[in-house]
Specification:
This protein is mainly beta. 4% of the residues lie in helices and 37% in strands. The chain has a single domain, classed as Methylamine Dehydrogenase, Chain H, CATH 2.130.10.10.
């Protein structure tokens, strides 16, 4: 990239974004959700994912924006779509959408086309629809640098580029903003590169995940997560089937967690920052680790993912008491994080539920579905179109029931702790 284009990206840098503090975010009190009552589908989308040349444009994941105004999807057609939630969910009616309808609930507000397959994507942590400067998300794709996109216009804000020993673009396999929103951490093969969001281009810090004694993370760094309580802890998952905890400031290795049967594909801290949840490919269990001890698995949460290399994203609800995860069986399973016990499940799709994301403060969630389908290499079948139902390769928004005031008080006062039981170390199958 030339000097002129570099200056252009520099001028488009989201100046002032990092200065937005969490205190300026609108405060919301999350209601207590009743997971024992099945949710109803409020909005549904599938038709617009089938307008391109790819007959099997399955969805790879879905993530709500930090302010809850919209959600972002990634699909096999190398496209990221932003869907704005109408009236912040107040206008949704589960009875208005029909499974036989040929129309989506509404069209995506922003469509961003990447040049290659999308590896990972994430929202700016202080994104707020009331401040256009902060409305950005980052993405990383095969053979491309990291891109910072404007979530309101779809324009490219900044580019962050890493190069290999041959001076060719090195694509990041995972990305995450640090809690202060000042840096982008990107995972590569046995290395992490750190970019200052105000300095787009090829300036970065590089840290090896393996020390001289070969202690640390080997392989591709496939997942990143920061502790939400600003303790300065960074968790990284690897395709070497291990997860490691580092210090954000100096990348000091604290400890390594072993136990997954496949490469780690998704990790997330509990809301209080004391526990870490990790999931792997071709691994049927999400593992809960107490990072204050980091010796044994506290408990395991089952999901149907034994036969796929696909990344399946899970999420923890705003109050930090429950975790929701999809799987190959088309179900979303809800688990109580206090005990590790299965609470409920509901059918979200007729194929693999690849992503599940709770709304940051409303009793809602979004799901994405789909998986790779292989066509027989026989000329006899080459002209037969791939026929999918409306509940395959789709995205949906779900609305949950809210507990009454009495139920709310009982749950809060009767179970004040959001942490897993110290005595639980169980395998829980639904």
């Amino acid at each position: 990239m030339g000097e002129e284009e570099e200056e252009k990206h520099q001028s488009n840098s989201p100046s002032g974004v990092a200065e937005i503090t969490q205190a300026t975010q609108e405060e919301h009190s999350s209601p207590v959700v009743r997971f024992d009552v099945p949710p109803h589908r409020t909005y549904h989308f599938y038709h617009q994912f089938r307008t391109g040349p790819n007959p099997n444009n399955f969805l790879k994941g879905v993530k709500w924006s930090p302010d809850g105004s919209c959600f972002l999807t990634s699909s096999e057609d190398n496209t990221l779509r932003v869907f704005t939630l109408p009236d912040y969910g107040s206008g949704g009616d589960g009875s208005t959408w029909s499974t036989i309808s040929d129309e989506d609930s509404y069209a995506a507000n922003v469509v961003v086309n990447e040049g290659e397959s999308v590896y990972d994507f994430c929202w700016y942590p202080y994104m707020s629809a009331s401040d256009p400067v902060s409305c950005v998300f980052a993405s990383t794709t095969r053979d491309h640098p990291i891109h910072l996109w404007d979530a309101t216009s779809g324009e490219l804000r900044c580019t962050y580029r890493a190069y290999d020993a041959m001076d060719e673009i090195a694509a990041a396999f995972s990305i995450a903003f640090n809690p202060h929103g000042t840096k982008i951490f990107a995972g590569y093969n046995k290395a992490v590169r750190v970019f200052d969001i105000h300095r787009p281009g090829r300036d970065f810090e590089q840290h090896s995940t393996l020390h001289g004694n070969k202690e640390g993370l080997a392989g591709i760094i496939s997942a990143l997560a920061f502790c939400p309580t600003h303790t300065g802890l960074l968790a990284m998952g690897s395709y070497s089937q291990t997860t490691a905890i580092y210090r954000e400031d100096n990348m000091e290795l604290l400890y390594v967690l072993h136990g997954h049967e496949g490469g780690v594909t998704h990790i997330q801290f509990s809301k209080d920052g004391n526990y870490l949840y990790t999931g792997g490919r071709k691994d049927p269990y999400i593992m809960c680790w107490d990072i204050r001890k980091a010796v044994d698995v506290v408990y395991k949460l089952y999901r149907s993912s034994e036969c796929t290399n696909q990344r399946i994203l899970f999420d923890i609800e705003p109050l930090g008491r429950h975790l929701g995860t999809g799987g190959q069986d088309g179900l979303v399973h809800i688990y109580d994080l206090q005990t590790g016990h299965w609470v409920s499940s509901f059918h979200a799709a007729l194929d693999t539920v690849s992503g599940f994301s709770f709304h940051p403060f409303l009793p809602m969630a979004a799901s994405s579905s789909g998986h790779r389908r292989f066509v027989l290499p026989d000329d006899t079948y080459k002209d037969i179109p791939l026929t999918l139902s409306g509940n395959e390769n789709c995205a949906s928004v779900w609305s949950f029931s809210i507990a009454t005031t009495v139920e709310n008080d009982t749950e809060i006062n009767g179970d004040a702790s959001n942490c897993p039981s110290e005595h639980e170390n169980l395998h829980h199958d639904p």
